[in-house]
Amino acid sequence: MRLFFLIFLTYLVQAKEQLDVRIIIPPKVRAGSTVTLLCLFDMGGIPLYTVKWYRGNYEFYRYVPKERHPATAFPFHGLDIDMSGSNAHSVTLKDVPKFLSGQFTCEVSADAPTFTTQSDSANMSVIEIGVRKPLLIPESSIHYQGTPLQVNCSAQKTDPAPQISFYIDEVKVDSDLVQNLKPGMAIFFAQNMSNDPGPRWLRCEAKVHGVYHLSSASVPILLKPATDCSYLKTPTWLTYAGLLLVCKDLVQINIMLYDPF
């Protein structure tokens, strides 16, 4: 009897080691979207008994291959299961609400004689956002080469905050040059843009991975050489400071024309 027990115990341990379960779900999804949760498992030759899905501690979906109707959905407030898109390895949720955020678990059980059970869990955040595109606002529509031109980008504020990127003629600006002022707002200072004829086109992008990826409209910036001092007639302090060295003869005049105090 003792020998039989040891053999059976060894069999159970081996069966548990053979059963491998892995859950794959997107970490962030947009409220109102459709999302598919995956449960990948290898039974290692052991027959499948059940697959159960939980949100927190509440079971909302079960798959039993021996049943006449293998798939069963259980009531869960705000959770709408697409049964036609669900099976032993996946569950499809429709129109997910924000409050559905939390931990999801897939539990897989083997059939007799072991009834070994293994599970895996992962968190999913449902983000509720608007669809407003980011807005690019340059300090000026004219850029004097060698002087700093401040460019602002304002995006929809979300949790988590969007990643903001800038582009000049579809070439991405080095992220080290971008300053994030607060969630949904960033700036960078254009210093030396191409000397090619024609305007430079600037735009910004806002992205939350797996949720949304939007671009602002492209804005043209005209280029002028820094020695053109006519711009100092109505300067901002940034452009004034940048042109001070090349337009010394206009310093006194412009201090009189532009005295913020």
Automatic annotation (TrEMBL):
Keyword Signal among UniProt keywords: yes
- Alphabetical list of InterPro entries matching this protein: Ig-like_dom, Ig-like_dom_sf, Ig-like_fold
Signal peptide positions (record): 1-15
Which keywords does this Swiss-Prot/TrEMBL entry list? Signal
- Domain (Ig-like): give its ranges: 32-125
Task: Please tell me the species this chain comes from.
Answer: Clastoptera arizonana (Arizona spittle bug)
Q: Does the keyword Ribonucleoprotein apply?
A: no
Q: Which domain of life is it from?
A: Eukaryota
**Protein name as catalogued:** Ig-like domain-containing protein
